[in-house]
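Predict structure. Chain length: 250.
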Amino acid sequence: MPIPDDVSGAELDKSVQQELQSLPRGLAEDVAMNLVMVARLIDEDPERAYAYSRIALRLASRVAAVREAAGFAAYGNQKYSEALAEFRAARRMTGSAELWPLMADCERGLGRPEKALDMAGAPEVSKLDKAGQVEMRLVAAGARRDMGQLDAAIVTLQSPELASNSTQPWTARLRYAYADALLEAGREGEAREWFAKAVESDKDGSTDASDRLAELDGVEFVDAFDDSAEDGAPASQGDSEGAGVERDER
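Prediction complete.
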């Protein structure tokens, strides 16, 4: 697959570059550039990211960073069995528990929530940093929901991290998951409160909490250029961009 001219491989983290030093120089450069493409495309074009990951894997399957990247690419394409195999391989190579929550979530994706819950109670969890432990809690709550144990999922998410007023990288996702579980349980008032808190902490738009909050408030976003609108009538007198307007349905 083609590699853009602006990709050199030097964009990788130093730790990954160091792992690749075990390879011949030319091979290391090829693998590095393919890994850069995986990272670049994983969110916007997961299928192409997966294709680049397979090339890197074919070239250097004994490098832990390559196995990890292949796992993330497979995970992003919902190839959970393949992702789990790659994550396990990377973990065997490094001895790190960092990928444990992702491995558990793969078990969920494979329809084995009970296995995910077993992993949530395993000793490996104590080796995770705070972000990893929060991620494991999210996976465990998801597994409870998969099993129809909604009240248990809500209790699982109740934690010091949820109650904290400080904003961390995981805060928005944790609050969002809690709000979503509350809403499914019919606790709409509490759900609205927590969706609002998720919006406050979601600085980079990693969730659709603002849309969920708007739905609860009865606000509908409509297209300012809707053909069904009256000809010649502006969508919003104060909207010079014409991107969209709100309509209160309450």
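Summary: DSSP finds 13 helices and two strands in the chain.
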